[in-house]
Amino acid sequence: MPFIDTSALDVIERLPGWHGRYFHSANMTFAHYDFSRGASIHEHFHPQEEVYEVIEGELEMTIDGVTKIVRPGLIAIVPGNARHSVRALTDGRAIIVDFPLRPEILAPEPSPHPQERLATE
Length: 121
Fold this sequence. Notes:
- This protein is mainly β.
- It is built from one helix and ten strands; from the N terminus they run ββββββββββα.
- The radius of gyration is 15 Å and the shape is globular.
């Protein structure tokens, strides 16, 4: 699929204050987030490299013990398996890209009614 209308994607609140629209390319996962002041992402790590681009607002990011304020024009690159956490200092928007893709994001949830699942596929 060479073109994706991100405004047509479902909004998912993965963590409190983090509302995202998600899609995959062949090798990457993309998240377009609206975040709320005070929202946070706990310290964690994963094998994928992750790139944060803030479009509006400010995020306080800690990557392997180093903390910086990320705002428009400053990109944060999280190496694979690096411990990192995020705290929203303001309301804002960001695009986050993971490589390689993260299959657990957008994994379909099983429907309790198989007929409903088939009707929407």
